[in-house]
Every structure is written in C-alpha cells, then in structure tokens.
Amino acid sequence: MHIHLDVIGGIAGDMFSAAMLDTFPDLAPPLFNLLDKLTLSSRLNITLEPAQDKGLNGKRFQVRIKGLAVKDSTHFIFQNTQQHANVLTPTARASTHHHTSWQKIINTLEQAPLTDEVRQRALEIYTLLAQAESQIHQVDLPQIHLHEVGALDALVDIISAAFLITHSGAKSWSCSDLPWGGGTVRCEHGEIPVPAPATLKLLEGFNWHDDGDSGERVTPTGAAILAWLKQYRRPIVGQAQRAGYGFGNRKLKGRANVLRVCPFKTPNATESDGQYISQIACVIQCDIDDMTPELLAIAQKNLRRLDGLIDLTSQTLQGKKERWVTRLEMLCLPENLSAICDAIFIQTSTLGLRHWQTQRFMLPRRQALIEFNQQDWPVKYAQRPNGERSCKLEADALLTPLTSHDQRQSIKSSVEKCPDLTQYDRRPESAKEIK
Fold first, then answer.
1. Does residue 127 sit in helix, strand or coil?
2. What is the pLDDT of residues 191-224, one digit of tens each?
3. Peptide bond just before 378 cis, omega within 30 deg
4. Maximal CA-CA distance, the chain
5. How many CB atoms lie within 10 A of CB 192?
6. Which residues, in sequence order, are CB contacts of 235 under 8 Å at separation 6+?
7. At what angle do helices 148-168 and 28-37 cross, to 10 degrees?
8. CB-facing half-sphere around the CA of 350: CA atoms within 13 A
9. Which PANTHER family does UniProt cross-reference here (predicted)?
10. Could you tell me which residues are beta bridge partners of residue 263?
11. Rounded CA gap, 13 and 222, in Å?
C-alpha cells in the first residue's frame, strides 16, 4: 500500500492521527486501548470526534488537560549551565511551570507498553524533533527540557503516529507541497517567524507554496512526522481506494483546515488473469557526452549493483552540437527510485535525469537445475499464455574456456530439450522464487 498526504490546511500531530483514523477506522479501538495503558493517560482526556469544515467531513483528534484542548506545540526550553554559556535562559513565565527533561521523555517511551517497532519509530520521530530544536538553538540534547503540558501532548501525538504508521501497512508515502502560512507565533522565547525555525530545519528538501492563509500551518510535531516519513517517500503509485480527513482546531478563511490521507493499492507482484505478473516500475534516462568509455563502463558496473535496479541498457545517439552521446536507460522498483537517482548523479557526470512510471507484464517463471552429462545446469522455465512452457539455459553456465561455440550450442540445445521439467529441480524451496 502507498499513502499520499494532501496537506490542504496544514499538518500537526493531532491532524495526522485524525486523518489516519478516519481512513482506517478499525485502528481506533487498538490505538485507544494502547493510549489507555500509558501512565500519562490518567492526566489526559483523549477523544476522536466527528468534525466538519467547508463541506468536508472527517475526524478531530483531541488531547485535553483539565477540559482544555492542548495546542500542538513542543514548548521546548533550555537549561542554562556554566558549560553552555550561550544557552537560552528560560523566561520568567517558563520558570513557573513544571518541566520535563529530554531523558525523562526517552525513559517514558522505553518503558511504555509498546511493540518494539512502534517504540522505535516513536523514539526516532521524537529524536528528530529534539535534534532540530537543539541545532537551531545550539544546545546539546541533555539541556533540552519541555513544559509538562507540551511534553504530554507531543508524546500522545508521536506514539499515536508511530502506531498508525506501523499498522496501516503502508510501504511508501508521498506528500503534497506544504502551505507556508507566514507571520509570527508566540512561544516561550517571544515572537518567532512562521514556519518555525525547527519546522524549516526538519523539512529541508520539501516543497512549499503560499496559498494566502497566514499563521502556523505546519507544526514542529507534524514536521517531525513528515521528516521521518521522508525515507519512504515515493511517487504516487496504484489505484486510489478511499480518503480520510483530519481537522485542526483553527479556522482558515480560504479553505478547510484539514489534512487528507489517500491510500493507494499498489499492483506490485500481482497476477492478472493467471497469465501475467503485473508490476509497476520506474524508467530513468540520462544522456552523457563527456565521459570516457572506460569511466562510463565503471559507472554502469557500479549502478548494476544497486538494490531495486531491474535492468540497465545503453545506446549511442547524436545529441546537441552534433556530439555523440550515450543514453543510459534504467528500470527500477518505485521504492528505490530516489536512491538510484542519487547514485546516478554520484557515479556519472550527468547534470539531469528523466524518470516516469510504467507498468510491465512478465510471464510466470521458475528456476531449476537440470542434470545433463552428470552435471547440473541452471535453467529458467516460463509459462506462455497458450499453455506452452519454454526452457532457457542460463548463459552464464556456459562461461568456460574449455568449450567452443559448437559445443556450447550443443549443450544449450540438449539441456533445453530435457523432457521432464520438474524432476531435476533439487533446490531448496526458499530458492524457488520468481526472478
């Protein structure tokens, strides 16, 4: 499954949870059962409520303390120590509140009744958030403290996000451009520009746009969730199934303050009518006119080793200024697109790439070992649409200086005509996979 996030009004931790729960309502009971088991839950009132804005219907995920909804804010402050002379000193207002240390946050997550996968993701998201704040303010993580209210709110949002990410089953994610907002917002250190410095730090590499509605549209917690999902960011792929809507508390003038979640059914490795295997893939192209054949050959060899690369071919064309160019064309899995593009820029001199999605059909196939002349020969069988099975000897098996062309041709013909296609398949079951 692939999930796309449409950041229409904005994104915060509570909006992400609301949109995911509106999309996957079956996840609400186990999530709230988990939240009820947390030691911090006795001090909070956490609800999932119906919501509507600008004609759209969805959910609102509310965290209340003493009946008041908590704003999605991290409320970071910093202790001043002699070892950190440039560390920000808490304001007078901040010093009147109870604070929670960064180490206590870590301890809370480590002791919470979470599965290892959910716990690890929650720790990683929270760490991204804290690291961004520490880099912006040039302090070490141990010096970071949070207001108690902010810490509880962020813990609920991040644990909920980690749970929903894990149990959604999504293998890849994508995100629309983010609304800039603008203006300022008041924090414990005074007025700061929007988007907040930590938010910008977390979202380096994301695209932004100005839609005319000001204010804080992307909160630090929402940014931390997006920053963690970035490692799984892929183009939209598959068939749209449904949509869920998560609303924030703030009202915008020009649009609904909503985050939309759209899951897509991805057709990778599925059979069509039992005849073909249908798979979504990506094509990458680049033209190179300034690399020597020796260096280009090395680059291609390195690229062929990449995970997710299905095939690489090259051809010679005439390009601009009547120069001869080598066009590289690669086929890869969608989830490996970004990593392979990075590798192409690193391994070659190209300054630009083209890529697009395509769909390929493959015949069902299996590999086996055929015994001929007291030797095992690897072959590949394919099932044709008319019911026939073809057999092909793997060419690498003929790489030996002891045979001539006629000998190789004879062995190939004899092996591929072996009458029984299954009795010699003596490989372990784990090796009998479609390639």
1. helix
2. 888 898 889 999 998 999 999 999 999 999 999 9
3. no
4. 91
5. 16
6. 174, 282, 334, 337, 357
7. 140
8. 24
9. NICKEL INSERTION PROTEIN-RELATED, PYRIDINIUM-3,5-BISTHIOCARBOXYLIC ACID MONONUCLEOTIDE NICKEL INSERTION PROTEIN
10. 3
11. 5
The helix/strand/coil state of 8 is coil
To the nearest 10 degrees (0 to 180), the angle between helices 220-229 and 116-137 is: 120
Residue type for 23, please?
A: T
Write the CA distances from 372 to 56, 424, 427, integer angstroms.
68, 10, 16
Residue with the bigger pLDDT between 141 and 347: it is: 347
Mean pLDDT of the chain: 84
- What residues pair up with 93 in beta bridges, in sequence order? none
Is 375:294 a contact under the CB 8 Å cutoff? no
Contact 233, 6 (CB under 8 A): no
Question: What are the chain's domains?
Answer: 2-265 (no CATH), 276-362 (3.30.70.1380), 365-431 (no CATH)
Distances (CA, A) of 412 to 51, 107, 345, 418: 68, 64, 40, 10
Question: Are 280 and 236 spatial neighbours (Cβ–Cβ below 8 Å)?
Answer: no
State both tokens at 324.
């001869």
**Both tokens of residue 168?**
């959604």
pLDDT in tens, 53-64: 999 999 999 988
Whole-angstrom distance, CA of residue 349 vs CA of residue 301 = 15
CA 127, CA 293: separation in Å to the nearest integer?
Answer: 46
DSSP string, 288-333: ESSS-HHHHHHHHHHHHTSTTEEEEEEEEEE-GGG-EEEEEEEEE-
Task: Name the phi and psi angles at 337, rounded to 5.
Answer: -60, -50
DSSP string, 328-382: EEEEE-GGGHHHHHHHHHHHS--S--EEEEEEEEE--EEEEEEEETTEEEEEEEE
With a cut of 50, say whether residue 340 has pLDDT above it: yes
Calculate ∠ Cα 42-48-53, nearest 5°.
140
Token pair in block for residue 114: 């979470």
118/403 Cα distance (integer angstroms): 57
- Find out whether 162 and 169 touch, Cβ atoms under 8 Å: no
Bridge partner residues of 286 (DSSP): 328
Where do we find the tokens 């995911």?
20
Q: What token pair was written down for 113?
A: 């009744």
